[in-house]
Design brief:
Radius of gyration: 27 Å
Strand content: 5-15%
Distance between the termini: 60 Å
Strand order of the largest sheet: 4-3-5-6
Bound molecules: zinc ion
Length: 243
């Protein structure tokens, strides 16, 4: 980069840093002017805003808005809200069979007599269970791994519920294991590991979710990997499903 341009960039960066400091100082001065260490006139209010702003995706402004809303709410409704949060943290368990969230030792899905116990759908986390349940298209059981194998993040097979999956399959009631993991390198690695782990059960069919075009996808805007997979994994045309 020419020296002239380098100096210009340098000056711009210094100006931005200076402006940012000025903005911060303005705020600090403003709060100090009020003669208060805290931002608000109530320490309890300040604490509530601090706690809300610790939640993911909630910034200081949103936290302030939520706390102001709570202040306006009926006292009974706020007590109910606080109790639900406390109960959630203290009393929600994980199903000892499939590791889904549950209020009892065995979750409602595992305990349900109407579910197909010969099929287990392996998912990464409980949000995936919720997503599949929302389709109303699957009636088997689940197995929540608690993540996927990711050496970069220090997550190995022993950190996941893979051994308990093998033990479930080993009981002999399962005909099919659906690997419903993300189509990422980590998901594929985990699929491979599980397939090796279950290789001692040749009668159990291992399947993966269909990968390809989404509903309403236009061919010209689809990336090559997705389009390639769609062609390789093409299926017979079903006129009933097309309408
Ligand atoms: Zn369960």
């Amino acid at each position: 980069m020419p020296k002239k341009m380098r100096n210009r960039v340098k000056n711009t960066i210094s100006r931005c840093v200076f402006q940012e400091k000025c903005v911060t100082l303005q705020h600090e001065t403003h709060f100090q002017k009020d003669g208060m260490e805290q931002r608000y006139s109530s320490e309890l209010f300040e604490r509530a805003v601090d706690e809300f702003s610790k939640l993911p995706g909630v910034g200081r402004k949103s936290a302030l808005r939520l706390v102001l809303h709570l202040l306006r709410m009926d006292v009974g409704a706020v007590d109910g809200f606080a109790d639900a949060v406390r109960q959630l943290r203290h009393n929600v368990n994980y199903c000892k069979v499939c590791h889904n969230i549950s209020d009892t030792e065995v979750c409602q899905i595992c305990a349900s007599p109407s579910r197909d116990t010969s099929t287990i759908c392996v998912v990464e986390n409980i949000r995936d269970v919720m997503a599949i349940e929302a389709t109303s298209q699957y009636h088997g059981l689940y197995h929540v791994l608690g993540g996927v194998i990711s050496p970069l993040d220090g997550i190995g097979p022993s950190d996941l519920h893979i051994q308990s999956l093998a033990e479930r399959v080993g009981k002999g009631d399962v005909n099919e294991v659906i690997l419903a993991l993300s189509s990422t390198m980590e998901g594929d690695t985990t699929n491979f590991y599980i397939s090796r782990k279950l290789s001692g059960f040749p009668n159990v069919r291992l399947t993966v979710l269909a990968r390809g075009l989404s509903v309403n996808d236009e061919l010209q805007y689809t990336d090559e990997v997705t389009l390639g997979r769609s062609i390789v994994n093409r299926v017979d045309f079903d006129a009933r499903a097309a309408v």
